[in-house]
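Lab meeting notes turned into a lecture example. A postdoc, R.K., suggested we walk through two folding results consecutively so the class can see how the record format repeats. The first protein's sequence and structure tokens come next.
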Amino acid sequence: MKTSVFNILILSLPVLLPSCNKEQAKQPFRLQAGVEQTAVKTVMGDKSESKYPIYWSEGDVIAVNGSLSQPLAAGDAEASSATFTFDEKPATAGVYNVVYPGNATSGRVEFPSSQSYVENSFCPGAAPLIGQTDDLEAPVSLRTCAAVIRFSIKGNVKLTSMEVSTPAGEKISGNFDLNLNPQDGASARMNYSFGSGLELSETAKAIVFTVPAGSYKKGIRAVLKSSGGSTMTLSFFTTGDTIGAKVCAFPSTTFQAGKEIIFNETDPMGGEEIDIEETAGAEGMNADDAALATAISVGSYNIWAPSARKSVMDADDTVSEQRSWANSYTAVADMIKLLDCDVIGLQEVTRMVYKTTYQGTSDNKDYDGNVHTLNSLLPSYSWVIYNANNTTYDSSFPKNTTAAGLGSTDAILYKSSVLTLNAKGRAWLNGTKTAHPHKEYSPDEGVANWDGLGTNRPATWARFTHKASGKQFVFITTHLDLPNAGEKSDPAFPQQRNATELIEWFAPEYAGDLPSVITGDMNVDAGDTAGNYDILVSGKWKDCYDIMKEWGTLSYIDQRVKGTMPANKNEEGGLSSWRPDHVLFYGFTPSFYMVGREKLPTANGEQHWPSDHLPVKVVLNF
């Protein structure tokens, strides 16, 4: 994809082709396109008097009302003006929308959800240009609709990725109309890749990314990640100014783990008068990568079991069939890829979700008789998952792991390229009503309903070594009982039992004093009347959301819209304020928190939340 900002001159240059059987062949249509000096494209000359000479590139494509031109030939490239050829003249219209890069949807521009570093390329992402005309015989100017943010960085680390987001939740990637109004599926973040890695040195490297021009209440945030796992945060335009469609160049900075640098623009082209404010962070950590703080990205996602989806759709015809597992499992996988966590805990995993070596007549098949498993769509992740009898998940899915008949379990997904699995296991959070001593699992008791006190819930753990730094940590995921699953006299007790077992026995037993993370759908939020949330934060593990809010580092959007569930299953009520999905930590410093609120395309292209829960992603430093 090319990144461009230019004016385009359109001329009608009809050419007659030979006719056959006295039928006139279609006439090709040619457009002459000119590029302004102040534009931004991949191929740029040296800056001269605050302007950059711009040249067309081989393969460039433009569109008029959705009609795509042929790719620009090499002989027509490397110049500021070129002629594009269409198979035929666009259909007559009152208004012609002209878009670069070309796409087949009239009146739509797209900012990519992934951009990549290209050395010595001023703008490697796609910065669209848009324009309108009512006369194809007259020149038409395209205006840039992208803000191009450019900064330089040096240091002694290898950069692997960068996540760009908006703390106030404004959309920066996906589809937009010609007025830059975000369309369904637009996202408040964008992932930036450095490929096999960008080695920093004492010579600063220029990094460039593009976002839609517009207003950003809390600015734009970019989190750089190194191969050693350390992160550094750069914040731009934090004063809430409107960012114009222009090049915004910032001065050089040095990578420092745990540091946040705030840039406030005063000179968009020069950079000499840019204000820089350094905020609190790690001190003196700009040596080699091994000496830097290590960061890992962790997450939690209740993916909504296929059986639970079916029961809801059977009972409520206002819930779209697109929310069935068969129609939305690819969207679940897309969300997990978009989160790009090093390790993530999943809840409500069933035999229809995870493909096993056992090929029974019904195992792994959805209600339409077909297989729609998740792990085949996530090749970069390895799994920690167990059967009901606590043996490794290597045969058919077990009978119900809960007395409620859900037949689901938890799973830990991790990137083996980043983490080494040292140990793993699972146990049950199943105490008694009078106290909370742990009971070992037995086939007769493990899935029992404990005297009407709710369902038995497992917790899964894994101990990892971070490959680049050699540091170890423990990751735990679970799914606590419902808030009202117990007897009428004490409906909150099953959840209370689960929470107490988790914090007083399970986590101390398997995590010890190592840095550790507890994730999951806890089915309880801070302030719930039963007080079970207080149990979760009564030990040494603290909720990332609470701590970052207390420190003043939680984003505006996450404070304003804290819920991790839609208000209802048919999605008509927006998002609820209930936050049952949590990331608790010990031995880390949190530097990033977000909820994945994007709707993604399902089987027929409809935009839906992939699950009835929203995922949570956190970056932790240790």
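The second example is placed directly after the first for contrast:
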Amino acid sequence: MTAASILSLSSCEEMELAPEGSTLTATQKSEVYGNDASKSFSAVSGAYMSMSARMPNEEDIKERHNDFGYPSVMLMTDANGEDMVNTDNGYNWFSFEIDFRDRSQDAYLSRIIWSDLYRYIFSANAIVASIDPASEDKSLKFNLAQGLALRAFSYFQLAQLYQFNIVGHETSPCVPLITEENADAAAQDGAPRATVREVYDRIYSDIDEAIRLLSEAQEAGASRPDKRYVDLATAYGIRARVNLVAREWAAAASDAQAAIDNAAGVAPASISDVAKPTFSSVDEPNWMWGIIVEETDDVATSGIVNWPSHIGSLNYGYANYSSGMKISKKLFESISDTDVRKGWWLDEDGVSANLTDAMQKAWVEYAEATISQYYDAYTNVKFGPDKGIIANDCNANDIPLMRIEEMYLIKAEGLALSGGDGLSVLNSFIQTYRDPQYSFSGADIQTEIWRQRRIELWGEGMSWFDLMRYGVGIDRRNCGFQSAYVYVMAGNDANLLWPIPYVEINANPALSTSDQNPSGGSPSPVRDSLASVHDEKVSL
């Protein structure tokens, strides 16, 4: 589904009203939502639930087992980079990302990313349009903030996928900018690509207002029911990410600290907390924001059309047949043996210190072979199965969207690049929560923080966006990829940008083929060679 067709729904989509069977137009729905906080909250809940829908694009691209909402975007982008190694053996639904076949404007994968993110924007626009921004009702303020935050998040992801970093590309074409203000006109006449600066101005405007509204709502006693919704700390976290990409270092550090200060009841996971497979429930005390999946949700009952099916090595799913998702060999080898995170992956002998004897026995029995034979070295065991049950086929894992640990790393980077003491923040965080023997005193602290982010946030849909904001390109040498997929790509390689789907260009009157991102052609593999992660330098 194109952005234009999604937006055209704003003028014709109807909602059934049981039991009378009558309908409300979108305009009438906005009026109802605006007058009833419970109804507008239902719209908010629906918007967040759509982030983990089973095959939301089925009508447009038919049945695809890698189509399950925003977690699909997380896996697609991670698989594009160099830190998540996986194979093309016929069972891997993310193999097109390995060799960049997803960069065709006709590829269904490009349509998934575009349609998903614009679908969230459409939902956000409907929420924002339905609520009076001058309302003093604390619940309506909270609901309005949800729409604004979701829209800011969605445009932020789009901006990083369809154009290079804002710094140096302020006037470059980005993505169509559609809000409640121009949605009707856009549905009729289309919308051109806005500049990167224009898109970021909207992102900042939306997240700034969301922070203000959430602060006022919180002071009035409003709070989120659970972690699927954005609270004040999460909103600060989103803005901290935006400031990091925009290289507003001091502001990034300040927002990260504000996120930490406002994250009531949230603290970094301890060494013992992460010395076992985990990262599967929003109830974990280090999660700030996540997608909640219920056992009865279609995405869970499908068994295999979900995020844990593809990335989870300890539960039932495609990973059992695709040989699993692995960490880059050179990144794994950069992790100290005293760092608890080394056990998030199998070592060269197929063993992880983070798996108990009982876990290993259950896994071996499930695999009907030894772990080293069933999964290759460096396969992840970071993400635990639902309820910790090995071989669980329910796959009702929650999906992490933001953890408090990220805020400490943003704070460290922001301080280090703005003249503050980011080194102490980094050392204290790693020593306390991951590796008591860690100590860093080198001059290139930004590269070291990047390495820590790559380890800490592996598999959580963050690695690609770091590659793009640093502008370092891709170097898959000595990572463990199949020889046909060992690429070295410069930071300005055209293949790094996603193409606008052809169906969007065809359906949007304000776009033409000249508005398409340039194609880099198929990347060519290079000869594999030894390389150390420590040799990689961030160049800003």
